[in-house]
Model the fold of this input.
Amino acid sequence: MAKKTRRRGEDTELRQLALELEQHLTAIRQQIRRPVEAEFAKGGLTGPQRSVMQALFKSDGRSLKELTAQVGLAHSTVSGIVDRLEKRGLIERKPNLNDRRHTRIIVSGEVREFMEKRYPVIAAHPLFDVLRAAEATERKTIVTGIKTLRRLLDNQLSDDYRRT
Done:
């Protein structure tokens, strides 16, 4: 009986610790994302427009049908989004070389360049500044802790996967 009580107490502590870690990770994620979100806000894109842009950036182009299926919005909605993004020069329609009746929708060269060159700098900026201000031992502690948490999560997830 004492073992069960002790174990329940440990589980309660671990749940509280897990919640605290989740709160810290959420706050960290929000702080890191703040400059990226501010940069994206300058573009004035709606949530669905950003979803379309993300889907296109992560691909070598999509047909309207493929894009509609990927973002999970109505065909007419995606068609309107594509028209508006094309007018702004953020995406382009290219003829499908295999079937000229269809077009491939791709991000513009300017968008691709921004995402490949400027975005990584903006995304890393908050971490870079914090790491620059930290002592070498603090940087090492941060990296060790993050790597440990990631390793433990990866191991747990692979164990859970094997059980299913």
About this structure: The longest helix spans residues 2-42.
